Amino acid sequence: MKIVILGSGNVATILGKALLEEGYDIIEVWSRTFSNAKILANSLQSQATDDLAQIRQDADLYLIAVKDDAIASIIDHLGSINGVVAHTSGSTSIEVFSGKCSHYGVFYPFQTFSKEKDVAFKEVPVLIEASDPITLAALKKVATAISNTVKEYDSSQRMQLHIAGVFASNFTNHLYSIAERLLTDNQIDFDLLRPLILETATKVQNILPEAAQTGPAIRNDLNIMATHQQQLESHPDLLAIYTLLSNHINTQRPKK
Amino acid sequence: MKIVILGSGNVATILGKALLEEGYDIIEVWSRTFSNAKILANSLQSQATDDLAQIRQDADLYLIAVKDDAIASIIDHLGSINGVVAHTSGSTSIEVFSGKCSHYGVFYPFQTFSKEKDVAFKEVPVLIEASDPITLAALKKVATAISNTVKEYDSSQRMQLHIAGVFASNFTNHLYSIAERLLTDNQIDFDLLRPLILETATKVQNILPEAAQTGPAIRNDLNIMATHQQQLESHPDLLAIYTLLSNHINTQRPKK
Asked: Which has fewest Cβ within 10 Å: A74, A152, B134, B252?
């Protein structure tokens, strides 16, 4: 099976690597910036291009792993393709392909990817959706080869999953950043926080987050919350985040 | 060494267990509610009481692991104690003991504890502070017996660490809860989110959170952010959190 990857960012890189490891042939890597295409193509034993008009026509699968707002303009160049064309986005509907490609779908790996950090792709859920049963079967085959968890969801559910992921991962990581900033300001090593971060995530691997909630807001410890708010007065942005999230936890305490 | 534990909540339970495992003798457990004292005392091969006036006077260490606003009233009953008296709170100053006890300090295990979830206490940082060098040495000895990471910080730094922990753990867990609610509303299994949660926490074990940030806000993907906000319109509370955190990430993007 021959695959073309369009994009050279985190998702394109990690996905390309997982596919190569399972023996797929990445015949071409396209990126808007040739040097980026070249770097990824080299690591995937592939060829690089930055010319959408010259994309190879003979692949079985074209994976579009680019920023959401670039997807439509790339699809405009792939109208003559006979293979399956799929994007990897959580929040772009499958409708983006409608009337433009013959066989199309979505191949969404639900994980946070950074080029510097290897990930066990087998543990990454892959959500698929397709224009027709044959395309669905083709996407499922590839997904199952690289991941232990493959699910079929429609565009609306996939968007909800993406939003949930933004809360549980993107926002969470930003809270880690804020915590790091507070520690650095007070000459405290971030290493002290790392076990707490890992344990917080590990806890909800077996129980639900509601049962795992701890801290002043869930204890209704109003004095401590007020003390913390006073400490944060010199950081109005952090004070606003502290107040909004504490109040949200506090109002959702189970009634006794 | 003989220890009395005051409190029967998550911290009292996990700390008592860690101390017992290292061979310490928990001679008494006090709780305001006798049945709670009894449950914990039984699990620690100890005796239970709910009478502060009758607390045993012959222990070497009294650990006060109760809600912050209950600490001062407990200390009022411990004025005649010769042993070391310490609380386990992040945000209550050591000054709470001043003029009331002879040897006192703070013994703050920096982790999120739930009774249902075992924790490898050796990996939990313990922050200590004491009224005098002899008391400090005593607290350090106990802390070092149960934890690999023991640090001395003053009350002001400990409060900052606690606030950082609220952001990185309590708020983070609440974001997991919100994500779970979004999934449940859309008939999506929370299991799909668990690998993402774990990977997000695992990533920052080696790199700093700023380098690990992903998602629409850091990519400045304004269309996707607007689409997500539209999807959240029926949950004004979640929309407010989404907007505040996305904007905070977005304004902190590195300048190109």
From this structure: B134
User: Which residue in the set A156, A168, A203 is minimally distant from B175, CB to CB?
Assistant: A168
Tell me which chain A residues have a C-beta less than 8 angstroms from the C-beta of B88.
none
- Determine, yes or no, domain membership for A123: yes
Note down the domain range covering A244: 159-251
The ipTM of this complex is 0.92
Residue of B216, B193, B81 lying closest to B135 (CA atoms): B81
Q: Identify the closest residue of chain A to B159 by CA–CA distance.
A: A228
SS3 call for B147: coil
Tell me the per-residue pLDDT of A94-136, one tens digit each, with 9 for 90 and over: 999 999 999 999 999 999 888 777 888 999 999 999 999 999 9
Each residue's pLDDT tens digit, A164-197: 999 999 999 999 999 999 999 999 999 999 999 9
Sign of CA dihedral A218, A222, A224, A226: positive
Confidence of residue B256 (pLDDT cuts 50, 70, 90): low
Min Cα separation A114/chain B (Å): 7
Is A163 found in the same domain as A148? no
Q: Are A177 and B167 in contact (CB under 8 A)?
A: no
A 154-173 → B contacts, CB under 8 A: 156-157, 159-173
Q: How many domains does chain B have?
A: 2
Tell which of B153, B178, B195 closes a domain: B153
**Distance from B189 to chain A by nearest Cα, in Å?**
10
pLDDT at res. A256: 56
| Residues B116, B7 share a domain | yes
Judge if B18 and B145 occupy the same domain: yes
Question: B153 to chain A: which residues are within 8 Å by CB?
Answer: 188
Asked if B70 reaches chain A (Cβ–Cβ under 8 Å), the answer is no
Q: Residue B116: name the closest of A3, A208, A252, A4 by CA.
A: A208
Residues B168, B117 share a domain: no
Query: A138: closest CA among A63, A79, A72?
Result: A63
- In a domain, residue A81? The reply is yes
Q: Which helix (H) or strand (E) holds B245?
A: helix B236-251
> In the beta sheet, which residues pair with residue A104?
A85
Tell me whether residues A192 and B125 touch, CB distance under 8 A: yes
Nearest by CB: B241 against A182, A192, A245: A245
In a domain, B256, yes or no: no
Q: List all residues 6 or more positions away from B58 whose beta carbon is below 8 Å from its beta carbon.
A: B2, B27, B83
Output the pTM of the full model: 0.91
- Is the domain of B71 the same as that of B183? no
Does residue A92 sit in the same domain as residue A119? yes
Residue B167 DSSP symbol: I
CA distance A9 to A43: 13
**Are A81 and A181 in the same domain?**
no
Looking at the structure, do residues B122 and B137 belong to the same domain, yes or no? yes
Helix (H) or strand (E) holding A64: strand A61-64
Q: B46: number of CA atoms within 13 Å, CB side?
A: 32
| Domain edge (last residue) among A153, A177, A201 | A153
